[in-house]
Design brief:
This protein has about 475 residues and is mostly helical. It has one domain: Sodium/glucose cotransporter (Up-down Bundle). Helix content is about 75%, strand content about 0%. Strands 1-2 form a two-stranded antiparallel ribbon. The longest helix is centred in the middle third of the chain and has 36 residues. It comes from Bacteroides fragilis (strain ATCC 25285 / DSM 2151 / CCUG 4856 / JCM 11019 / LMG 10263 / NCTC 9343 / Onslow / VPI 2553 / EN-2).
Length: about 475
């Protein structure tokens, strides 16, 4: 049943790719969708790209250990989207950028430019591998392991499918496939909620009462400054997570830059930001309902929160319909994130590191195709590496990775945007590498000596250290304004 669902789903994706790519696979179409993407289509598709298969599985399982405190971070997300819409998007459209890291070359220098692009490639490769790993693991555990098919082949097959429908038209195809995938994700989430509430014999008011009265319904934590769930830590981290993982991320910005105008891109960001909070609230509510159902059925829940929803979906506790919906949901969520990430990494590598903008159309296309294949192979390797190292909630691991790898990007862009000073470009790569190392040492020291636990606020500390380091080696003010 799962295999049949996968085959039908990807057949539709390939049909969309064929339709969108029938007029050829130019570099303009691959990188920026020829600037013809309708903003409302981009906005809807970006919901699925941000939620990912990790959210679909991990967020419902978070309530077991963290209650609903993840919503504190989500509330911060909205204000982060406003900052992106009014600070970063106008800059990108003014400079007519294909890769957003070109700004660092214009403002700071070539070494900062290459460093920023390299940190993005590392961040996106690790994050995409972690997200796609979770789906591969579920498919392997519940479907392919009994067939004797090894995990690495599941990873290879998944990445190959992404490559097949993105290699020709890139972002032009992804804008439309993401729309389908977001629709499937939301439909699957709501349908699973309906199945669970029916199993609990609850009406709408009963659902609200059950969730609000549950011991895991706590959202806000104001009293414990040492906790990683403290409101101010989570809220401020949410703002900066969006700024770096959306506003300073080529993957997410590439979709926005494919819109027809800055105004359209900003409307996309507003709608997208509004939609994120209620969807995450539904995921967390589903998590509480699953805990209640497990208690009624006297089920022993797995230790890892990421395994709770897969347990109910794959072991027949909710019926075969939920199994199909769960399969569609995680595949739609995972691949809406992975396809755009692979395209964005290809764009950044070609534009930022290979400088294909100076090549002829045909030569640039050949390089783009080779890079697309090479990054696909590298993604398979990192998925297998995550499988070997995984030992915690995947969504938590992704944000911790982001704290270390996106921090230098935050510091570099902040220096460029909010100062008029000229820095010594040759020191920037060393500063960008030293900042995460100092953050890691500070985190270890704080835990051992004071018991204080850094959470996602490591991202802000990392950005501040990078900013300070670049400031120290800077001199005299610039006359140009950016």
């Amino acid at each position: 049943m799962i295999l049949a669902t996968i085959v039908c789903y990807f057949a539709i994706l390939l049909l969309i790719a064929r339709i969108t790519g029938r007029k050829g696979g130019s570099n303009a179409a691959f990188f920026k969708g020829e600037n013809q993407s309708p903003w409302y289509v981009v906005a809807f598709g970006m919901i699925g790209a941000s939620i990912s298969g990790v959210t679909f599985v991990s967020v419902p399982g978070m309530v077991k250990a963290m209650d609903m405190t993840y919503m504190q971070t989500v509330f911060g997300f909205f204000f982060g989207y406003l900052a992106v819409a009014h600070i970063l998007l106008p800059l990108y459209y003014k400079l007519n950028l294909t890769s957003i890291y070109t700004y660092l070359d214009t403002r700071i220098g070539k070494r900062a430019y290459r460093t920023g692009a390299s940190f993005f490639l590392l961040s996106r490769m690790l994050g995409t591998a972690a997200k796609l790993y979770l789906v591969c693991l579920i498919l392997y555990t519940y479907v392919f392991r009994d067939m004797g098919i090894p995990f690495w082949s599941i990873a290879a097959g998944s990445v190959a499918l992404v490559w097949i429908y993105t290699h020709k038209s890139g972002i032009k195809t992804i804008v439309w496939t993401d729309t389908l995938q977001t629709f499937c994700l939301i439909a699957a989430l709501i349908s699973i909620l309906v199945f669970v509430t029916a199993k609990l014999n609850l009406d709408f008011s009963g659902v609200i009462q059950t969730i609000s009265s549950n011991e895991h319904s706590r959202i806000f934590v104001f009293d414990d400054w040492m906790s990683r769930q403290n409101f101010f830590k989570q809220f401020l981290s949410g703002i900066f997570i969006v700024i770096v993982m959306t506003g300073l991320d080529q993957d997410m910005m590439q979709k926005n830059l494919s819109c027809r105008s800055l105004r359209d891109a900003q409307k996309n960001m507003y709608c997208y930001g509004f939609a994120f909070a209620p969807l995450n609230l539904l995921f967390l509510g589903l998590g509480i309902l699953l805990l209640v159902l497990a208690q009624e059925m006297q089920l022993e829940l797995p230790a890892a929160g990421d395994d709770i929803l897969p347990l109910f979906a794959t072991q027949g506790y909710l019926g075969e319909g939920v199994l199909i919906l769960f399969t569609i949901g995680i595949i739609a969520a995972a691949f809406s994130n992975s396809d755009s990430a692979l395209t964005a990494m290809t764009t950044s590598f070609c534009i930022d590191l290979l400088d294909t903008g100076k090549d002829t159309e045909e030569e640039a296309r050949r390089k783009r195709n080779r890079v697309h294949i090479g990054l696909s192979v590298l993604l398979i390797f990192f998925i297998c590496l995550v499988d070997a190292l995984n030992n915690q909630s995947v969504i938590d691991a992704i944000y911790i990775i982001a704290s270390y790898t996106y921090g230098p990007l935050l510091g570099m862009f902040a220096f460029g945007l909010f100062t008029q000073r000229k820095t010594n470009d040759r020191w920037v790569p060393f500063i960008a590498i030293a900042s995460p190392l100092i953050c890691y040492a500070a985190d270890r020291f704080a835990r051992q000596e004071t018991g204080y636990q850094f959470g996602y606020e490591l991202l802000m500390l990392n950005g501040i250290l990078t900013f300070a380091g670049i400031w120290i080696v800077s001199k005299k003010q610039l006359k140009n304004e950016f």
